[in-house]
From TrEMBL, chain A:
GO terms for molecular function: phosphorelay sensor kinase activity. It catalyses: ATP + protein L-histidine = ADP + protein N-phospho-L-histidine. Pfam families: HATPase_c. Keywords: Coiled coil, Phosphoprotein. This is histidine kinase. The keyword Hydrolase does not apply. SMART domains: HATPase_c, HisKA. It comes from the Bacteria.
UniProtKB/TrEMBL annotation, chain B:
Pfam families: Arf. It comes from the Bacteria. This is GTPase. Keywords: GTP-binding, Nucleotide-binding. InterPro entries: Gliding_Motility_GTPase (IPR052705), P-loop_NTPase (IPR027417), Small_GTPase_ARF/SAR (IPR006689). SUPFAM superfamilies: P-loop containing nucleoside triphosphate hydrolases (SSF52540).
């Protein structure tokens, strides 16, 4: 509630000056003192105490003054003879009361004024405090945001570094292995071909030995079962050739994989990359799962194939490791709405719902110490995002996990 | 600004004694009460004292009646000097027509004086008084004490200031009336301009001052 302020220095009326004093009691005191009918009236005629009806002839009318001026009168009826000393005493008493009233009035008005001004000052300070508080709050929020941003930056830099190092070392290893195997596998293959032609030559001798040869020679031929040997030898060599072909293909894939550190973009058909990655991973995976490829028609994609290979490998190995018993990893590719979709679905143990929101967090892993870095999915997501795409993960405990990669194809 | 009451034919003028704590503002007013003999003189009202220190203000009413029947009334206030009572000082200063700044001449009080003077300037602005035109007299009080600034030092320091300087010892009574008269001289022109004291009421400056101070009105001015 607003307290009206009159001002401690405003002009005071007789009513103001006697405002704290009960009219009845003042009247009672005055009648005893004066022993007569009386009236106390203000300058403007307001009755303050005493007789309600004005006296006909107010011969005794003494001015009551306050602050240099008359503010009212004490009146008594002229017909009643009143002791002058008593009258003066009554006036003095009234003036004392007035002075005390004035002191009270001024003190209280001043108090209100001061309190009000102090309150306003407090309000002003409060407003200023609120403002500075909100400023600091905003600053703190900004700071928090910047710290988060920095942490994010450091995280991603760390991951990139880790990835780059990993890629480089894998690339080097793969390149080294491929180079070392390439040479021996070359001569083994050519030797096997030569051996095959030698077997053919031997076989051409068989009929001649059996028809023209002496009994001893034919018996020895039969004892040694050389007909079978020659057939089996051929088969063995054929098998070895296809085996070395397989090794050669692995070497070729490894070489392709070793290109991970190449910085340039390339236009590739991702189906080829997937096949190559499957071949590389086949050894690690074959004991746990069967890989089923359902590769659809894909357009060429400009990308960093080495990085995407790493993603596919990560996801394949994750899928394989999710297997409690031997299962199946189904890789599907398709192209729709300008996006290549690559779905890698396993029949593994699935990811618990509470872990699902965290799987992309750096260094989050459910594997035993030393078994996983917790960076596979993080790096994978980064790579996919760097290619403008995104990842989706759906998982059900005991049923399996499906990771779907979407990569936009830019014309 | 002075109050002009046409109905009761009254002009009320508010004068304020301002200054640091214990510089002698109340003593000034008490001395004036004893020294002056104007037509009308009220009692000093003190609100409230606490260990002889002014808590709210002191008030001395003075006045005289012009021949035209007008009441010219002066209310002399003192402010509480202690720093904590700033809101009270501000309230007392509001609507003032003139100020006597009572400074303490003691060497140790220099900072208090200047802080209080700065406070006067700040508060004048806060209550809407134009400090540049506000009638002001600067009184250096307590000249009777040892370890005080010399008059030359004070005059040097205040040489650039436009206000009259008065040296006083309120306790003894010297310089008190002089300060008051200097203030009346500074206040008169504004009052005359506002209320045509000279034209309407035939009160020149000297008559005005004599009437307030209470000296015989030998030669109306």
């Amino acid at each position: 509630m607003e307290i009206p302020v009159r001002g401690y220095d405003s002009e005071l009326s007789l009513r103001d000056l006697l405002s704290g004093i009960s009219e009845d009691r003042l009247g009672a005191v005055m009648s005893v003192l004066l022993d007569s009918k009386f009236r106390v009236v203000a300058e403007n005629g307001d009755l303050i105490a005493g007789e309600t009806i004005a006296f006909n002839e107010a011969s005794n009318r003494i001015s009551l003054s306050y602050d240099l001026e008359s503010v009212g009168y004490l009146e008594t009826i002229s017909t009643e003879k009143i002791d002058e000393a008593k009258l003066r005493a009554a006036v003095n008493l009234l003036q004392l009361l007035m002075k005390s009233g004035a002191r009270y009035f001024m003190a209280s008005e001043m108090h209100i004024e001061v309190v009000k001004s102090d309150y306003e000052e407090l309000q002003r300070k409060h407003a200023a405090l609120l403002e500075s508080e909100s400023r600091y709050k905003a600053l703190a929020e900004q700071l928090d945001e910047r710290v988060k941003e920095q942490v994010k930056m450091i995280d991603s830099a760390q991951r990139q570094l880790y990835q780059a190092e990993k890629m480089a070392s894998i690339g080097q290893l793969a390149a080294g292995v491929a180079h070392e195997i390439n040479n021996p596998i070359g001569f083994i293959k050519s030797n096997l071909s030569a051996a095959q032609s030698y077997v053919k030559k031997c076989r051409s001798m068989a009929d001649l030995v059996k028809s023209e040869g002496g009994e001893k020679l034919v018996n020895a031929w039969k004892t040694a079962d050389l007909d079978f040997v020659l057939n089996d030898f051929d088969a063995l060599l054929q098998e070895s050739i296809s085996g070395s072909d397989r090794v050669a293909r692995i070497v070729a894939d490894l070489k392709g994989f070793s290109n991970v550190d190449q910085a340039e973009e390339e236009s590739v058909n991702l189906n080829d990359n997937i096949r190559s990655v499957c071949n590389v991973a086949a050894n690690q995976i074959s004991s746990q799962a069967e890989i089923v490829l359902e590769l659809g028609e894909l357009p060429m994609l400009r990308c960093f194939p080495g990085q995407l290979n790493q993603v596919f490998l990560n996801l394949l190995l994750n899928a394989a490791q999710a297997m409690k018993t031997r299962g199946e990893i189904r890789i599907k590719t398709n192209f729709s709405n300008g996006k290549i979709g690559i779905q890698i679905a396993d029949t593994g143990s699935g990811i618990p719902a509470e872990a699902l929101p965290r799987i992309f967090d750096p260094f989050f892993t459910t594997r035993d110490v030393g078994q996983g870095t917790g960076l596979g999915l993080t790096v994978s997501r980064d790579v996919i995002m760097a290619h403008g795409g995104f990842l989706e993960v759906a998982s059900e405990i005991g049923v399996g996990t499906t990771v779907t990669i979407y990569l936009p194809v830019v014309e | 600004m002075a109050e002009f009451d046409e109905i009761n034919r009254k002009i009320t003028i508010k004068l304020v004694y301002y200054g640091p704590a214990m510089s002698g503002k109340t003593t000034n007013v008490m001395q004036l009460h004893d020294m002056l003999a104007p037509d009308l003189k009220g009692e000093i009202m003190t609100l409230e004292t606490q260990n002889d220190r002014t808590l709210f203000f002191d008030l001395l009413p003075l006045g005289f009646r012009t021949q035209s029947g007008w009441l010219i009334k002066f209310k002399l206030y003192t402010v509480p000097g202690q720093v904590v009572h700033d809101a009270t000082r501000k309230a007392v200063l509001s609507r003032a027509d003139g100020v006597v700044f009572v400074a303490d001449s003691q060497r140790s009080q220099g900072i208090n004086n200047s802080e209080s003077f700065q406070n006067l300037e700040d508060n004048a602005r806060r209550v809407g008084l134009d400090f540049d035109v506000l009638p002001l007299v600067v009184q250096f009080n307590k000249r009777d004490l040892p370890h005080i600034l010399s008059e030359t030092e004070i005059q040097d320091r205040w040489s650039a200031a436009p206000w009259p300087l008065v040296f006083a010892s309120a306790l003894v009574g010297t310089g008190v009336k002089e300060s008051f008269i200097k203030l009346l001289e500074a206040v008169y022109p504004a009052l005359n301009k506002a209320f045509s004291l000279q034209e309407t009421h035939q009160i020149g400056m000297s008559a005005f001052i004599r009437a307030v101070v209470g000296e015989p009105d030998g030669n109306p001015g």
